[in-house]
Amino acid sequence: MPTKKPTISSSHSASKPTQKTIAEITGLAVTTVSRALQGDEKIAQATRLRVSKVAEEIGYVPDRAAQRLRTGKTKVVSLILDPHNEILGFGNSLITGVAHALAGTDYHLNVTPQFLGGDPIEPVEYIVRNKLADGIIFSRTRPFDERVRFLRERSFPFTTHGRTEFGYQHSYVDYDNEKFAYESVLRLMQKGRRRICIILPPNQFTFHQHLNYGYMRAIRQEGLQSYIPGGISLDSDMPEVFEWAKNIASSPEAPDGFICPGETSFLAIANGYRQAGKARGLDFDAVVKSSSQTLHQIDPHIDNISEDIQEAGVLLGTNLLKTMEHPDGPFEQTIQDPDITFPSLKSFQD
Amino acid sequence: MPTKKPTISSSHSASKPTQKTIAEITGLAVTTVSRALQGDEKIAQATRLRVSKVAEEIGYVPDRAAQRLRTGKTKVVSLILDPHNEILGFGNSLITGVAHALAGTDYHLNVTPQFLGGDPIEPVEYIVRNKLADGIIFSRTRPFDERVRFLRERSFPFTTHGRTEFGYQHSYVDYDNEKFAYESVLRLMQKGRRRICIILPPNQFTFHQHLNYGYMRAIRQEGLQSYIPGGISLDSDMPEVFEWAKNIASSPEAPDGFICPGETSFLAIANGYRQAGKARGLDFDAVVKSSSQTLHQIDPHIDNISEDIQEAGVLLGTNLLKTMEHPDGPFEQTIQDPDITFPSLKSFQD
DNA sequence: CATAGTACTTATAACGTTACAAATATCGGA
DNA sequence: TCCGATATTTGTAACGTTATAAGTACTATG
Hints:
Organism (chains A, B): Pseudovibrio denitrificans
Keywords (chains A, B): DNA-binding, Transcription, Transcription regulation
Domain HTH lacI-type (chains A, B): 17-71
Largest interface: A-B, 50 and 49 residues
Pfam families (chains A, B): LacI
Strand order of the largest sheet of chain A: 2-1-3-4-5-11
Low-confidence stretches of chain A: 1-13
CATH class of the largest domain in chain A: Alpha Beta
Number of domains of chain A: 3
GO molecular function, one term (chains A, B): DNA-binding transcription factor activity
Mean pLDDT of chain A: 89
Order of helices and strands of chain A: HHHHEHEHEHEEHEHEHEHEHEHEH
Oligomer: homodimer
Strand content of chain A: 5-15%
Number of helices of chain A: 14
Shape of chain A: elongated
Helix content of chain A: 40-55%
């Protein structure tokens, strides 16, 4: 007789089924059930099948708290949401992307918002201290990012959205902002623009450098005039940018080409110029980096290079999964290539 | 001698400090430490103080997995993010709001994205089945919402963003969409508009009814003409709405007033009309419900009634906390009052 | 000085899982 | 038939916490 008779004991059917319940039904030991569910090769295939069938039938789901206590693994990934991501669905796309990458694994996604004005290291420290996740994703890296240093020191798995300039490697996903800026300048020149202005992010961020390099490379190469506004950044709010644009528009040194690595700065600038009586396409042009469909849907003629944030989320998720599996590298490093497909100049004219 | 001598044992300072570590240092039993940390009045105040001082010193943090296993409480709140929330920072504001409400409590926020096209009950069932949270927040309720029914049957704490029409009470936060629609009609009438069109959400949602009631009430009361487009809803994407608006704009029955309970539908309509040669302020007017600052920043003259989504998040969070504390009610029910302050008609003219 | 009450502390067990070491069953070959 | 190897299963303990019931010491009372 290959199996002992099922021991009909008092407790199953009531309350939540556990491995113990399965053990009682199958007549196996709890250990065996555990290992069968893990797919351990050392357990007879017949047993594995029988166990998972019973598990299925009685609706067994493993207790994450118990697994976590025993194994030390949370099976959670934390995404730290930057307050600057609030604009135009950035955060949502990122979340959706990461969630997609995690779907099918047994990892859950935990979103920790970083409050405006708080030190960026805080949520990271909190997660590590309280062991709330097995891996962390965060964005807006700086060249010598404190968070990267912190996590690396503790060998805590992470992936960043954005690069750093440390001497060592780590997992990241980034957008080729240098190419974006470079190509944008060329596009504006192609349209006959000569005084090219770029709205840069605050200079502590790595992607400030990348944008700047690409921009300056093209400016120098083509012998154009550069214009980098002092008081305005990608993080300035719209009214501020609007005021600035309105003022500069009527000055003799008014730029005639804008590179906007964010949708809102474009909107503010376009409005400022319009307010000053200057029309886009006539008095100035702009290339915009958009992370949503909104702008393109408002006006498909806007020169727009899109950054696929949801894809970035997927990449961040998969890179982090790999990093958690092999904590000592090789580190997955992915650069998203800007998709440069402008409306043709001809069709734009009519 | 009131305290035993600290037992210097092998293990503290290495590895993660636990209650056991504190017990060894203070010479108390683990149970006492546990109860002291919980602030149990039965433990001498001196002891409580001493324990928390030591805990502080050695950087003790409770192990959430162990607490969860023992108590059955996850101390997690799940926010289910609807894919339709992706537009214009809605989801982010909600997250930030809930996070604010939870800050200072020992609850963590877990964001579960609901994938587009998936059954809305799925994430709810999943969370309940796997006991991933102690309470759930979700949005876009229907009059007889399956999720509400499901959770209520199992007495699982939840708060909804939006009302239902069940005979029983539950905790919710909602926006007074009826008032929004009603006041919007009046505003458009005040501007001389007579053919008023409203873009409604798909009719399975409760807030479709509320918007419709408010709208119809004002339309009838003032003897205006109503226009509810058939093929278009608040969830239609921009190009679709744009096409529709462009077509209707040049027909004899073209509405001259629009109520847009979402920013993107306004943008699409305004573009469609413009494309058809019709100008806002001249040929038509619109009242928009905005959940971000973007629109207002683009043009402060747009008649705009704002819905404070972050506040909604805070309310949802606090309501849920109360519900979890008192699972049998009374249920916190909050209606957000639309802030109706239009630019004055005079100043709009110049 | 015994007694009851009060103030405070503690041992034990348990939550559900898995790692480890050990036991048992099965099989092929001598 | 016995032996060793292989296949499979199992008992025990532990992860860190808290609920329960029980303990001890001290204080007030008569």
